[in-house]
Amino acid sequence: MVNQRIFSQVQAVGSYLPEQILTNQDLAEKLDTSDEWIQKRTGIKKRHIAQENEYTSTLAINAAKDALAKANMTADDIDLIIVATATPDHTFPSTASQVQHGLGMSHGAAFDVQAVCTGFVYATSVADAMIRSSQAKSVLVIGAETFSNIVDWEDRGTAVLFGDGAGAMILKAVEQDIEDPNPRGILANYLRSDGQHKDKLYVDGGVSTTQSTGKLRMLGSDVFKLAVRLGSEVIDHVLEASHLQASDVDWLVPHQANQRIISAIAKHYGMPMEKVVLTVSDHANTSAASVPLALAAAIAENKIKKDDIVLLEAMGGGFTWGASIIRW
Per DSSP, what are the bridge partners of residue 309? Predict the structure, then answer.
């Protein structure tokens, strides 16, 4: 109808974390590090690690099932699956197609998005565009990673930072009155990338370069310096696009890479830490899974309520960075 417009509304958020836990103390027994050293620099206390029979698709399927159950939906209600991951099961087919099969779904479409730690925000933006253009009605957006498979476990600078997990969000097309000043759903997305920063955070392997998986490499100080500035850039854009101020935000749900980065972004916007969702201490950096895992944790703790303004923000290798703002 002419007086209606389509918004992507969140129906549910699900999560899955492997049962195996690796604490800082466990790492201290193998590396020249300590629980105190790790916590002081990152805020991380522990991380979940996938076992041998757990693949990225395994984590994603479990998170998807959790989201579907919470939404009282089945795979039959979904017509598109987007999986954000930098650690796919295979070079091809896509991990999303494996999730599709694992859910017993043979209709619709499924594909992967690769933007490393910003992957979930990228996938959310793509899903929103598909819904707004009437190419999909219900989209399952998943961030899933098994970074334990690409971490160099002898490098204390990176080994202590990462964990495995998956989070899933269901978006559904909902028509709302075009005159409604406070529509519910995704209000704005903004995505950025800049390949000149490639050597600051990358994996030293690949199909066409080394014909091997490779290991994660990072210039931590350089990434830290850019994270706050780039994160603020995309946050400014989505706030402006949605005609909101930082003070209007009820919950900031940032990429869970480092507590000091998160605190710096919150301080930049004058946001009290009580408005920031923090899971980095228990999950570490789960790359594309970190934002949906944090969302799921906040919902489980009854923090996010209907009509709350929720701001998602992330930055990852590439560099990629982006933000989404949602009225819940």
Answer: 327
In this structure, are residues 259 and 285 in contact, taking their beta carbons and an 8 Å threshold? no
190/235 Cα distance (integer angstroms):
8
Say if CB 84 and CB 140 are below 8 A apart: no
Residues in the chain: 328
If we measure between CA atoms, which residue out of 33, 288, 281, 17 comes closest to residue 153?
A: 33
Given 237, 255, 258, 283, which residue is catalytic? 255
Location of structure tokens 């949602």: 326
Task: Judge whether 146 and 316 are in contact, CB under 8 Å.
Answer: no
CB-based contacts of 72, cutoff 8 Å, min separation 6? none
First to last CA, the chain: 24
8 A C-beta contact, residue 37 and residue 161: no
Q: Identify the bridge partners of residue 8 per DSSP, sorted by sequence position.
A: 173
Q: CA 251 to CA 6: how far, in whole Å?
A: 24
For this structure, is 255 an active site residue? yes
Domains of the chain by start residue, with CATH: 4-177 (3.40.47.10), 185-327 (3.40.47.10)
Name, in order, each residue with C-beta under 8 angstroms of 244's C-beta and a sequence gap of 6 or more: 187, 309, 325
List average pLDDT for each run of 10 residues in the chain, which is 328 residues long: 88 98 97 96 98 97 98 98 98 98 98 98 98 98 98 96 99 94 96 96 97 96 92 97 98 97 97 98 98 98 98 97 98
Residue 197 designated active-site = no
User: Residue 307 has which token pair?
Assistant: 């009509």
Query: Is pTM, for the whole model, over 0.90?
Result: yes
Distance CA 28, CA 8 (A): 45
State the catalytic residue, choosing from 48, 62, 117, 197.
Answer: 117
DSSP 308: -
Residue type present at position 118 = T
